[in-house]
Amino acid sequence: MKETGLLMGEVAKQADVNRETIRYYERIGLLRGPLRTGSGYRLYPPETVARAQFIKQAQELGFSLKEISELLSLRVDPESHCGEVRRRAEAKIADIEEKIQALRRMKQALTKLVAACSGQGPTSECPILEALATRRKRDAHSR
Asked: Which helix (H) or strand (E) holds 143?
């Protein structure tokens, strides 16, 4: 019987990921373990490419590997509903909004520090370094 399927390199190339990513997804259970050829090479079914692409796309949208595992489970569960997927996507949007707000606060704080620094003089007198050291001391005392 002839062995059919895709070798790891073929899956990786078609899914636009590297081989180590395929191995990692397999190790953590996002991709099913492949068959092995007589010489020990991994042999994946063609649908592995679409699954790896799904994982990659979901990661690019900010989903964690745990969340992706849950999405993959929902995808194959005949009892699941699109509303559950929508709820998870809306929750991800809320997480992203929180991160954006945190980044804006960080940018605002850094902008103030940069404005206070002329960029002249020794680092021992740098207002940015001083503010960071003072804040750390203040935070340590408030604990």
From this structure: none
